[in-house]
Design a protein that fits this description.
Belongs to the ABC transporter superfamily. This is Phosphonate transport system ATP-binding protein. Keywords: ATP-binding, Cell membrane, Membrane, Nucleotide-binding, Translocase, Transport. The chain is an alpha/beta fold and 280 residues long. Helix content is 31%, strand content 23%. The protein has 2 domains: 158 residues, P-loop containing nucleotide triphosphate hydrolases (Rossmann fold), CATH 3.40.50.300; 72 residues, no CATH class. The protein has 9 helices and 11 strands. It has a 6-stranded mixed β-sheet with strand order 7-8-9-3-10-11, sandwiched between helices. It has a 5-stranded antiparallel β-sheet with strand order 2-1-4-5-6. The longest helix has 18 residues. The radius of gyration is 20 Å and the shape is globular. It starts with a strand and ends in a 29-residue tail after the last helix.
Length: 280
């Protein structure tokens, strides 16, 4: 089976800044991967490149290609003619939810069905009974079916994020890319959203890539972690290898963004033995 996501030597430059540099990455169907890194490391840019929301640099022949389940998203700085087909099975979950606040929760979830509808029916919002049943079932699965008739803006942040997850279920996504989905949530809501994402992935066999600032969530919920720094992948391996000392080695002072203060290892001078001192 083709990879859920395949990036081949993908780069992205903004002016003089290289946000992503020559990244190659493979995510298998059903695999769950945490993407970590300090601010400006390139996580969000990589998510947007993977979904075709932004175009990669033209780096040369055969590079800058993104495929999902064997369907080309982009290559050589251009969107593929197959991109619409590819996007049908790529679900997106954003930090700020990307919902229409004035529309009902149910209608926001039904948006996930638009890719399978003809243009006229989609434009007019003419959803049939089967589509509505599917949307209600998705809301029930994420635990908020009782809010279906409310406007999205009436829900809490954690509830809105679960609406976005339900939308991906209705879409029939085989790959979900979640960009900092818990960054603006309180700890209780963040845990509920992470539980929902991982349960969705496990129960439906959906590949899941989640970018996170909070490394404790990455190690608690994922077996594989990809760490980025200055636009490059600096680690790709088991979550069990991630700890405060390792993060300090990778990121230096920037590791403070990723780990709890009580876990932060004070970097030792270059000529000294490794230190185990922590800041409380």
């Amino acid at each position: 089976m083709a990879a859920a996501l395949q990036l081949d030597r993908v780069s992205k430059t903004y002016g003089q800044m290289r946000a992503v540099e020559n990244v190659s990455l493979t995510i298998q169907p059903g695999e769950r991967v945490a993407l970590i890194g300090a601010s400006g490391s390139g996580k969000s840019t990589l998510i947007r490149l993977a979904s075709g929301l932004i175009l990669a640099d033209r780096n040369g022949a055969g590079s800058g290609a993104v495929h999902s389940f064997g369907v080309k998203v982009q290559e050589g700085g251009k969107l593929s003619s197959e991109v619409r087909s590819a996007r049908r099975h790529i679900g997106l979950v954003f930090q700020q939810f990307a919902l229409s606040g004035r529309l009902s929760v149910l209608t926001n979830v039904l948006v996930g069905a638009l890719g399978r509808m003809n243009a006229l029916r989609g434009t007019l919002g003419l959803f049939n009974a089967d589509e509505r049943r599917t949307a209600y079932a998705a809301l029930a699965e994420v635990g908020i079916a009782q809010h279906a008739a409310k406007r999205a803006r009436e829900l809490s942040g954690g509830q809105q994020q679960r609406v976005a997850i339900a939308r991906a279920l209705v879409q029939g996504a085989k790959l979900v890319l979640a960009d900092e989905p818990i960054a603006s949530l309180d700890p209780k809501s963040a845990k509920r959203v992470m539980d929902t994402l991982v349960t969705m992935s496990r129960d439906h066999g959906i590949a899941l890539v989640v970018s996170l600032h909070q490394v404790d969530y990455a190690t608690a919920y994922f077996d594989r972690v990809v760490a980025m720094n200055a636009g490059k992948v600096v680690f790709d391996g088991p979550a069990s290898q991630i700890n405060a000392a390792f993060l300090t080695e990778l990121y230096g002072a920037s590791a403070e963004e990723l780990i709890l203060p009580s876990q932060f290892v004070v970097p030792a001078p270059a000529d000294a033995a490794p230190s185990t001192q922590t800041v409380s």
